[in-house]
Design brief:
17% strand, globular, alpha+beta, three-stranded antiparallel beta sheet
Length: 98
């Protein structure tokens, strides 16, 4: 289940393109870290080049964060995993992002 705060955060993003929103929505729906290839497959994108730059831009904007790396089963190379950034204060309370 998607938390209502996540839904509100998603709806508050007004300055992103359609592909950015679609990728962000995939992260919301999945609820766990994903590689660029995971996003490509989940979103049924035709090419990694439609996904990778948008994920990098979402990371640069602070919306997503790189959170680990795994071996890609297709390329056998280490690749990044990303997740939605969760802002936490010093008391462990989630802050609003937008």
């Amino acid at each position: 289940m998607i938390h209502r705060n996540s839904i509100a955060s998603y709806r508050s993003i007004t300055d992103l393109g359609d592909r950015h929103r679609r990728i962000y929505e995939l992260f919301l729906m999945r609820g766990h870290p994903m590689t660029d290839r995971d996003v490509k497959l989940a979103g049924r994108f035709e090419d990694m080049n439609l996904v990778r730059p948008r994920i990098t831009e979402l990371v640069d904007l602070g919306i997503l964060v790189e959170c680990g790396s795994v071996v890609d089963p297709e390329t056998k190379r280490m690749v990044r995993q990303c997740r939605i950034r969760q802002a936490i204060d010093s008391n462990g309370v989630q802050l609003t992002m937008f």
